[in-house]
Design a protein that fits this description.
Blueprint (H helix, E strand, L loop, with lengths): L4 H53 L5 H11 L6 E6 L4 E4 L14 H7 L4 E7 L3 E12 L2 E11 L1 H51 L14 H48 L5 H32 L7 E5 H18 L3 E5 L6 E5 H17 L6 E9 L2 E8 L33 H11 L3 E7 L3 E9 L9
Parallel strand pairs: 7-9
Antiparallel strand pairs: 1-2, 1-5, 3-4, 4-5, 6-8, 9-10, 10-12, 11-12
Helix pairs in contact: 1-4, 4-5, 5-6, 7-8, 8-9
The chain binds adenosine-5'-triphosphate and magnesium ion.
Membrane topology: Multi-pass membrane protein
Subcellular location: Cell membrane
Keywords: ATP-binding, Cell membrane, Kinase, Membrane, Nucleotide-binding, Phosphoprotein, Transferase, Transmembrane, Transmembrane helix, Two-component regulatory system
Amino acid sequence: MNLSIKWKITIAYALLFTAVMIVTNFLVTTTTEKKFFETHKAGQLEKANIVSTLISDNLDKNLYEISEIIDSYFPRMDGRLIYTDANGTVLLDSFTESQLLGSQLTHREVSGALQGNSSSGTYYLQDNGWVKYIAVPVLRDGQVIGTIFTSSSVDDIKKAVSDVRIMIFTISIIFAGFVIVFSIIISNSLLEPIKQLTDGSKKMSMGLLDTRVPIKSHDEIGALTQNFNSMAEQLEKNDENRLSFLADLSHDLKTPLASIKALAESLGDEESKETYQEFLGDIVTEIDRMNITVSRLLEFNKVSNISTKVNKKDFIFAFLVNETVNSMQPLADKKNISINFKGGQLKEKIFGDREKLRQMILNLLDNAIKYSEENGVVEVRLTDKRRELHLSIKDCGKGIPTKELPYLFDRFYRVDKARHKETGGTGIGLAIVKDVAQLHEGRVDVESRLETGTIFTIKLPKQGTWFKTL
Ligand SMILES: Nc1ncnc2c1ncn2[C@@H]1O[C@H](COP(=O)(O)OP(=O)(O)OP(=O)(O)O)[C@@H](O)[C@H]1O
Ligand SMILES: [Mg+2]
């Protein structure tokens, strides 16, 4: 059934309410009826017992005198009262036009009373409606010498109970209406934010990444909305970064292309061999620049799927750091930057993908060199921290503003949007660092002070300290 949540909630409330009202109605009416019947029965039984005692006390009197005595006790007889002998034959009847006198009563209650037990029963009679029969024995010296049989209408009780039932039913119907309206209002207010989230995600899927959903409550739905908004913000930022990355990339490719075109065009009229060779040299330089850009693009493509093809092994981490530091030395030398590595003697092992971890360290060293002034110092320190190895890379470069730190590891994010040719990066280096660290159940921290320097610290669990994934 394709019912909306609103109708599911409404139907559930209505069903629950109906069930409660049916049970309430049943319990209230049955207990009321039982109570009324018990009171009625007690009254009738008391009357029958009094009459029974009167008769057994006055057995020496004739029937007429006995009936006079009964009348004097009960001047207004409620219902019918019959006195039978020990065979159940009717001797006296409170009905003046009785046709039962002299006939034998065969009612179950009379038979019971003849055996010495008071008994009663409730019946529906076609002509008289609901009636209650009660019979008690008339005793003399412990012997049953007759019975008193009373019959009284309990229609009033049945009617009162049925009135109560109708009243509860009517109230239930009215309240069911309220419950339905109330549950529609409740479910509407509950589902409104979900509807807004659905609309929001629809807009997002259509590319409107600036969509945000207002947070109206501080419950689970509020938290969900908040997460949705942060996700939207992240996507929007990624998209902005991607666009600026593409703009830079096209610029990086277009500028050398324009130079190559201009150089090639001017070559046509050129006769001097030296100028010819010089122009060709320039063309090769421009092609090299394009080559670098394209290589970075390919590299990005390769690392975008960082989690695929993971090849984890146990190895001594300090060896890898040492190797990587050495491989970056020529780049550092160009700016006369010295790289100091401390902790190379540590023999602690890491279970990880050597190539990906090398890439991670390379990216951090590359940044440390790239964003440092000439003649600077880069300090690389490997420390053993109980269950983890910490690798910190510290530079004395220009630092990063605190407000930029939360976005630093986003793809295509660069602090310095107006890139200088010499530092021009693509903004994926740190995104790769974070991905690789997470792939090894590790994390990256950063501390930075403007014009003082930056420290990146990679924290990786040692070999055997986490579940090995192959
Ligand atoms: N050590 C650092 N000192 C100062 N700024 C830094 C440092 N490391 C990173 N940054 C800033 O963080 C930004 C993102 O760094 P990231 O390595 O992701 O990209 P990139 O270096 O610009 O390009 P790529 O590494 O992809 O060539 C950089 O553009 C730079 O502004
Ligand atoms: Mg970088």
